[in-house]
Amino acid sequence: MALGGGLRGSPVAAHRLPDAPRFIMGWLIVTGDAPVFVFRKWGGPSLVDLERIRVDEIVDRGFFRRVDLGKGADPGACLFFASGGPSTESLRAEFLLG
To answer: Is 35 a domain residue?
Structure first.
């Protein structure tokens, strides 16, 4: 988690995330306990709180890291991080997988 509850942003793509377009680019923001996905819509910024969504698996695919989402999300929902972004280990710690 972000030290001291400070903000940290990492660019991410989301597929089939609840309350978001089918595929959208945005940022993963950590403000304390749970990360949120922030993205832009025509009406301004919007967010999806990821606290209520379970993470099933984190897969490293060379060009990207995929975070597969389970309970609380649509079937097939996932987040994509560039391979130069957060490491698989830091994502596991962020989403409390171990």
So the answer is: yes
| Cα–Cα distance for residue pair 75/88, rounded to 1 Å | 22
Q: Say if residues 90 and 98 touch (Cβ distance below 8 Å).
A: no
Query: What is the 8-class DSSP label of residue 63?
Result: S
pLDDT band at residue 7, thresholds of 50, 70 and 90? Answer: very low
Q: Which residue has the tokens 């989301």?
A: 14
- Please, is 14 exposed, middle or buried when counting C-beta atoms within 10 Å of its C-beta (0-12, 13-18, 19+)? buried
Residue type, 29: I
Residue with the larger pLDDT of the pair 23 and 97 = 23
* Distance (Å, whole) CA 98 – CA 93: 7
Give me the CATH number covering residue 48.
Answer: 2.30.29
